[in-house]
Automatic annotation (TrEMBL), chain A:
GO terms for cellular component: endoplasmic reticulum; Golgi apparatus; TRAPP complex. The keyword DNA-binding does not apply. It is found in: Endoplasmic reticulum; Golgi apparatus, cis-Golgi network. InterPro entries: Bet3 (IPR016721), NO_sig/Golgi_transp_ligand-bd (IPR024096), TRAPP_component (IPR007194). It comes from Aythya fuligula. The lineage of its organism: Eukaryota, Metazoa, Chordata, Craniata, Vertebrata. This is Trafficking protein particle complex subunit. Belongs to the TRAPP small subunits family. BET3 subfamily. It comes from the Eukaryota. Keywords: Endoplasmic reticulum, ER-Golgi transport, Golgi apparatus, Lipoprotein, Palmitate, Transport.
UniProtKB/TrEMBL annotation, chain B:
Its main location: cytoplasm. The gene is TRAPPC2L. The keyword Ribonucleoprotein does not apply. Signal peptide: none annotated. The keyword Transport applies. The lineage of its organism: Eukaryota, Metazoa, Chordata, Craniata, Vertebrata. This is Trafficking protein particle complex subunit 2-like protein. It comes from Pipra filicauda (Wire-tailed manakin). It is found in: Cytoplasm, Perinuclear region; Endoplasmic reticulum; Golgi apparatus.
Length: 181, 139
């Protein structure tokens, strides 16, 4: 059941605190279920992926953006439209490679970690917001852009800002070449 | 201006207790422990009264020759006890109330931390800083 584009924004919102607390409870439960941090990170990534492949349709329907012509447009779209729409923050984008396929989103404020002061000592390598990486990866895959998304810096681990790195893997033009053959 | 701040759980064991290090800490621990009886008296006296801000703040629990002990209980029966130096020019009631309100706010922030299990001892830097700011006003 597709929604018409330009549909009026749903005026019922749920409390942001409820969302943040739910996410926190999810991560805390995963920490109880898995002993190793890598397992928790993988699980969060997989969950995020499942969310991302579904969320992309909602995003495209609600924002009715045009097709992106380049990777940097895509990265800008993610930062300025998607993050703004779903989390209410706008990270800044910077391109970190000469080839133009590595970008990083720098988040000053991360609403998901509002209540977490710091990671517990035995969970030092936990990527608390790994769900976001999975969401971005899943969403990009559904628009035929393979990407690797990881956390480069994390405020919870002591860095100054939270930085998400997106590396686009295959160039979209390659697929077109293959089709023309 | 407080010389000792304590957070006591519903089951009457301490979640957090911190006193000015220059004094004998055991004495404060004992004072807080004895004040719990007074807190329980006051709670049972209130009965099923409506819980509003005034009922959360219990006021002066009992004065000793050197100190005054104030109490505050939350809706979840977590108690905050504050021991204040009597020699300080009498702190106004409002100031004590605002200190308890700050404590309560910091406590709820800790409760929201997903890695904190209710009933654990409190090991939060933000909470420590807030309590320090309340205690360091003593010269």
């Amino acid at each position: 059941m597709s929604r018409p584009p330009g549909r009026k924004q749903d005026s019922q919102k749920i409390s942001r605190e409820l969302f943040v607390l739910t996410y926190g409870a999810l991560v805390a439960q995963l920490c109880k279920d898995y002993e190793k941090d890598e397992d928790v990170n993988t699980c969060l990534d997989r969950m995020g992926y499942a969310i991302g492949i579904r969320l992309i349709d909602d995003f495209l329907a609600r924002s009715s953006v045009k097709r992106c012509r380049s990777y940097s447009e895509t990265a800008d779209m993610i930062a300025q439209v998607a993050f703004k729409m779903y989390l209410g923050v706008t990270p800044s984008v910077s391109c970190s490679s000469a080839a133009g396929n590595e970008f990083s989103l720098i988040l000053d404020k991360n609403p998901l970690v509002d209540f977490v002061e710091e990671l517990p000592a035995e969970r030092a390598s936990l990527c608390y917001c790994n769900l976001l990486c999975g969401v971005i990866r899943g969403a990009l895959e559904m628009v035929h852009l393979a990407a690797e998304v990881t956390f480069l810096q994390d405020r919870l681990k002591g860095d100054a800002v939270t930085e998400i790195g997106i590396t686009f893997l295959r160039k979209a033009e390659d697929r077109k070449h293959r089709r023309n053959k | 201006m407080a010389v000792c701040v304590a957070v006591i759980a519903k089951e009457n064991y301490p979640l957090y207790i911190r006193s000015v290090p220059t004094e004998n800490e055991l004495k404060f621990h004992y004072t807080v422990h004895t004040s719990l009886d007074v807190v329980d008296e006051k709670i049972s006296a209130m009965g099923k009264a409506l819980v509003d801000q005034r009922e959360l703040y219990l006021g002066l629990l009992y004065p000793t020759e050197d100190y005054k002990v104030y109490g505050y209980v939350t809706n979840s029966k977590v108690k905050f006890v504050m021991v204040v130096d009597s020699s300080n020019t009498a702190l106004r009631d409002n100031e004590i109330r605002s200190m308890f309100r700050k404590l309560h706010n910091s406590y709820t922030d800790i409760m929201c931390n997903p890695f904190y299990n209710p009933g654990d001892r409190i090991h939060s830097r933000a909470f420590d800083n807030m309590v320090n700011s309340m205690m360091m006003q003593v010269c």
